[in-house]
């Protein structure tokens, strides 16, 4: 029976990254996959994580399963990181959480719970959104609707369009929102706009489903969670999928967490029991290593301070690269690229056609997605001039 299945095409993003790796051009530049890279093009291990790992290797005496909800330090630390240490909802025991295999696992657990609670739910996703949302959430059987989000001509959020579309979201639907650093466009909501979304959710009764995979890489750990926290203050319920892949550099360790803001502590406990059962029917137990490292970092003030410093340095570097890229691109092309400065996190669309991105790849070995989404962190002092010149040539 297996022979009846056909070979599927490679993932388009990973396929482009592989093509870049195979490209012999010494000047090649990889701006495809969303991993943070430093000035040397290396995706580094955080010093605080390395220290935590050394201690863990020394002290770990068993590889027995963790409790089904995951490491308690990790859960406590992540709830405070996302909702804020002074969150009223946390103090009231209204947030339960389940460690998951990465932000992806958390999104899937959130979708499983939504499907059980509201089998006919529509999941409203931004246009565009991260393409992996569809298979991750859709495979539980939920259907999608799109809301307008990125306006290519103005390089910003079409907020009026978004609100108009979300007026059709009903009680029992989910609205998937990127907590910060929108993937793929980098255009985020203002706090005022988050307030409008909160009002809509209150009025219409839809459930916000927040995907926060880049907390700390836009404007800082607290500012990046401000929109989500505003919703948490005003709304009775919300699902949050958080990832430690980028902000703790734990990509391959598959470290994430599904969090459920509930009406009261009793509901929070009930939802946790549902989440455990959902995990049990998919992969059973959460992965331990990454969560134990993150838990140690979040529970030890010295390690946490060191991690916050390192993350802050990354954030500053990304924002510095955005600034430099605007200057270089404006100098080489004579066009306005100021929107790159306004956008947040690792991604921006350069606003190029698919044909122009193909020429960049084939003629200059500069790799980005066909949508012209770039990973800003793939730029460095050694390649920025080359990239800006190549972009100028393809749009000339
Ligand atoms: N959501 C978004 C928007 C992402 O970009 C990512 C990572 N690419 C994730 C969630 C989850 O990533 P992971 O499963 O590696 O934690």
TrEMBL record:
Superkingdom of origin: Bacteria
GO cellular component: cytosol
The UniProt record lists the keyword Transferase: yes
Pfam families given in the database record: Aminotran_1_2
Family: Belongs to the class-I pyridoxal-phosphate-dependent aminotransferase family.
Cofactor field: pyridoxal 5'-phosphate
Top-level EC class as recorded in UniProt: transferase
Domain annotation Aminotransferase class I/classII large: ranges: 27-391
Subunit relationships: Homodimer.
Single Gene Ontology MF annotation: L-tyrosine-2-oxoglutarate transaminase activity
Organism of origin: Pseudohaliea rubra DSM 19751
Keyword Transferase: yes
EC identifiers of the protein: 2.6.1.1
Keywords: Aminotransferase, Pyridoxal phosphate, Transferase
UniProt name for this protein: Aspartate aminotransferase
């Amino acid at each position: 029976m297996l022979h009846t299945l056909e070979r599927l095409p490679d993932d388009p993003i990973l396929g482009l990254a592989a093509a870049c790796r195979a490209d012999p051009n010494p000047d090649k530049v990889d701006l495809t996959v969303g991993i943070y890279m430093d000035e040397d093009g290396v995706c580094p291990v955080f010093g605080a994580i390395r220290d935590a790992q050394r201690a863990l290797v020394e002290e770990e005496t068993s590889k027995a399963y963790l409790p089904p909800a995951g490491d308690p330090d990790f859960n406590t630390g992540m709830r405070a990181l996302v909702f804020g240490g002074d969150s009223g909802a946390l103090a009231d025991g209204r947030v339960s959480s389940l460690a998951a295999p990465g932000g992806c696992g958390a999104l899937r657990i959130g979708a499983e719970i939504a499907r059980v609670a509201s089998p006919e739910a529509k999941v409203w996703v931004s246009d565009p959104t991260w393409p992996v949302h569809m298979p991750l959430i859709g495979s539980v059987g939920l259907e999608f609707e799109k809301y307008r989000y990125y306006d290519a001509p103005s390089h910003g959020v079409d907020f009026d369009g978004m609100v108009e579309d979300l007026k059709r979201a009903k009680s029992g639907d989910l609205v998937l929102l990127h907590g910060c650093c929108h993937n793929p466009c980098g255009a985020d909501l203002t706090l005022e706009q988050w307030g409008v979304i909160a009002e809509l959710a209150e009025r219409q009764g839809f459930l916000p489903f927040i995907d926060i995979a880049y907390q700390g890489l836009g404007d800082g750990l607290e500012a990046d969670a401000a929109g989500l926290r505003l919703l948490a203050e005003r709304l009775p319920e919300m699902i949050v999928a958080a990832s430690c892949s980028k902000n703790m550099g734990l990509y391959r360790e598959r470290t994430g967490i599904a969090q459920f803001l509930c009406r009261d502590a009793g509901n929070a406990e009930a939802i946790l029991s549902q989440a455990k059962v959902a995990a049990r029917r998919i992969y059973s137990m959460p992965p331990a290593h990454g969560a134990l490292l993150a838990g140690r970092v979040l529970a030890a003030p010295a390690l946490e301070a060191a991690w916050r410093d390192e993350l802050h340095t990354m954030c500053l570097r990304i924002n510095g690269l955005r600034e430099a890229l605007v200057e270089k691109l404006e100098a080489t092309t004579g066009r306005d690229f100021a929107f790159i400065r306004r956008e947040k996190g690792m991604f921006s669309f350069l606003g190029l056609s698919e044909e122009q991105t193909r020429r960049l790849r084939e003629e200059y070995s500069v790799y980005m997605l066909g949508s012209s989404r770039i990973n800003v962190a793939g730029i460095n002092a050694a390649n920025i001039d080359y990239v800006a010149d190549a972009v100028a040539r393809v749009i000339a």
